[in-house]
Amino acid sequence: MPTGPNSNPSDDTVIRAAALMGSLMIGFVGSLLLIAFFWLLFAATSIDERLAAWLGLGAKTAWHFSRASGMVAYLLLTLSTVWGLLLTTKIIKESVPPVLSLAMHNILSWAAIGMTGLHMTALLFDSYYTYRIVDLLVPFIGPYRPQWVALGMIGMYLMILTSLSFSWRKRMGQKWWRRLHYLTYVAFALVTLHGFLAGTDSSNPGMRLLYLVSGLLVLALTNYRLIASDRQRNRQRR
After folding, report:
1. Among candidates 70, 65, 76, which has minimal Cα distance to 34?
2. What are the pLDDT digits (tens) for 168-180?
3. Whole-number Cα distances in Å, 228 to 221, 223, 225, 231
4. Any idea what the Cα angle at residue 204 is, between residues 202 and 207, rounded to 5°?
5. φ, ψ (nearest 5 deg) of residue 55
6. Cα–Cα distance between 216 and 210 in angstroms, integer?
């Protein structure tokens, strides 16, 4: 990218790094989706069903894709939540420029939302449950475990709200923006409950381990952040 008379070379470096990071994230998300899809495909179907799905003729292909994209969406939400908790620590502050660290958090958040959209849209093509668009947008009215599916919908809306808040940060001010961002915890908890209670793979030991590790990791980092904040306040008082 050529630099003009008023441009800053460091700004160009940040832009290039952000573009590279975005490209790597797209590749990472796509790879996760393919791995999850084919893992579910081969773990849960017979040989003839696998072949039909490979040819795009499987009746369960949409269901498998929905499950795979939901799994990847949860991983991305976990990564976004973890990265947000690490933003104020020395680990990130001393190794990643502030512009890039915040951009990474934003990219992870929107990637999780985008994958959630694929997770929902795939259900419209499912041959077992008949989903309408309104079933995917309005909580508690769907044909499959509506109360637990509703938790995921509400969590998604909170994810969208907190992700949009990046654009309102200057208008809201840092204090209110942080308070709004606490809804990320609620979104993470709701989506975790949704996956565990509504997911058809929740009985799978691997999925249970995923939910357990993700929850413990977020809880541990939250405690670490609270302890670090208390120490910082005590130092400032002294």
Report:
1. 65
2. 888 888 888 888 9
3. 10, 9, 5, 5
4. 65
5. -85, 0
6. 10
